Amino acid sequence: MAHRRRWMSKRELLSGDAVAAFLGVSPGWARAGEALERIYSFADYSAAVGFVMRVALAAERRDHHPDMLLSWGKVRVSWSTHDAGGITGLDAEMATLCDRLHVG
Ligand SMILES: C[C@H](O)[C@H](O)[C@H]1CNC2=NC(N)=NC(=O)C2=N1
């Protein structure tokens, strides 16, 4: 499937420079070991739950899944490609998608 190959080809590790370039244009995101991480804030618990659900549905569509830690008014999202053992282009892309889902 063409669309699937497109996602798969992004499951290659990014260089340190490429990760730094991503972080330079992605406020809020940081490198946490072998993952990209950001903490989002929300007005209350249910707004945070709604965000987690939107991210989860997007993750299922792309067969690429983040770690998410839900707290009251707060969600910590962590993207890493387990198959590759680190941060890939797909992680950067999904992080950007999270930012769009956060703004609404
Ligand atoms: C079989 C399936 O495509 C793989 O297990 C996918 C599912 N979701 C995934 N999500 C993440 N974050 N990393 C992976 O390596 C990964 N692999």
In short:
This protein is α+β, with helices and mostly antiparallel strands. 47% of the residues lie in helices and 20% in strands.
Care to describe what's here?
- Helix content is 47%, strand content 20%.
- It is of the alpha+beta class and 104 residues long.
- It has one domain: Transcriptional coactivator/pterin dehydratase (Gyrase A, domain 2, 2-Layer Sandwich).
- Strands 1-2-4-3 form a 4-stranded antiparallel β-sheet, with helices on one face.
- A hairpin with a 2-residue loop joins strand 1 (30-32) and strand 2 (35-41).
- The longest helix has 18 residues, at 45-62.
- The mean pLDDT is 93.
- Ligand H2B binds next to loops.
- Ligand H2B is lined by residues 63-65, 80-83.
- InterPro entries: PCD_sf, Pterin_deHydtase.
Note the run of SSEs as H and E: HHEEHEEH
According to DSSP, the number of beta strands is 4
Shape: globular
Q: What kind of sheet is the major sheet? A: 4 strands, antiparallel
In this entry the ligands are: ligand H2B
Number of domains: 1
User: What are the segments in which pLDDT stays under 50 over at least 5 consecutive residues?
Assistant: none
How far apart the termini lie comes to: 30 Å
CATH superfamily: Transcriptional coactivator/pterin dehydratase
By secondary-structure content and strand pairing, the structural class works out as alpha+beta
Q: Any idea what the radius of gyration is?
A: 13 Å
Beta strand %: 15-25%
How would you state the average pLDDT, rounded? 93
| Order of adjacent strands in the largest pleated sheet | 1-2-4-3
